[in-house]
Amino acid sequence: MGVSYETILHRIKAEINEAEKKVHNESLFVKHIENIQLLCDLVVASEQPKPTNQIMEKATHPSNSLGDISAAELNIMMGGKRPKKTAVDMEDGEGNGSSIFDF
């Protein structure tokens, strides 16, 4: 975590003091309570595992976690070379048949 817990606790205490002063002004009071909530969420979020580690683990172990994706598809998705396409002959001799716009 980039910010120490002491710094966050100091900010929370300062926000509590400001909220106590603004208890008669609802909009300012709520603003300080929201700031406290944000600071608390910052600490809680720093303790949760990062999802990027899970994604990288799945990418390095494709056979266990990627289900129906074949090795060739995974290779293409990871930037590997695509297999060469073969031309499809059309009955009328026009177009190559690989595009949905060939008619």
Mean pLDDT equals 74
- What string gives the helices and strands in order? HHHHH
Question: Tell me, what's the shape?
Answer: elongated
Spans where pLDDT lies below 50 across 5 or more residues:
none
DSSP strand tally = 0
The biggest beta sheet reads: none
Tally of separate domains: 2
Radius of gyration from CA coordinates: 29 Å
Which key features would you list for this structure?
103 residues; 5 helices; DUF5327 family protein; 58% helix; 2 domains; mainly alpha; DUF5327
List the helices and strands and how they pair.
Blueprint lengths: L4 H17 L4 H22 L3 H10 L1 H4 L5 H7 L26
Protein name: DUF5327 family protein
Organism: Paracerasibacillus soli
InterPro entries: DUF5327
Please tell me about this protein's structure:
By secondary structure, this protein is mainly α. It has 2 domains: 5-47; 49-82, no CATH class. Helix content is 58%, strand content 0%. The protein has 5 helices and no strands. It has helices at 5-21, 26-47, 51-60, 62-65, 71-77. The protein starts with a helix and ends in a 26-residue tail after the last helix. The relative contact order is 0.07. The model has no long low-confidence stretch (mean pLDDT 74).
